[in-house]
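Lab notebook, bench 4. Still working through the backlog of constructs that have no structural model yet. Next entry is a single chain of 125 residues. Request: give me the structure tokens for it.
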Amino acid sequence: ETSLDFLAGTDDGVRLYWSFLSPGEQAWFNLDEIIIEEKMTSSTTIEKADFANTIYPNPAENLLTIESELLLDEVLITDLSGRGVLLSQHRSKNQTLDLSGINSGMYLLTLKSDNLINTQKLFIK
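Model written out:
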């Protein structure tokens, strides 16, 4: 398990800690020398959304078709450990993805449109 933690309010500013946890081990890295070149002036909220979309076939074999009511900014397929296996940033409502290089199994398909995100299970034969 990995985690990224921010500790604010220390005497010398904000500290960033990254930890990697594995069975029987724990390591912490204190990153002191972070330079932020731009200040964030606003925040963006990403919302889970069930916007209308159709994916087929599911389970898929070589090709996956996605039809959405919204313009998709990003389509991401991740394995169950969270590793990205396919990323499409082709902005459109309809896409056909080539899955021929992806192993059989269960994946998560994430569709992003503006500040909305929709995640669903995808099975590949």
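Notes after review: Residues 1-11, 13-22, 25-40 have pLDDT under 50 and may be disordered. DSSP finds no helices and eleven strands in the chain. Flag for follow-up if needed.
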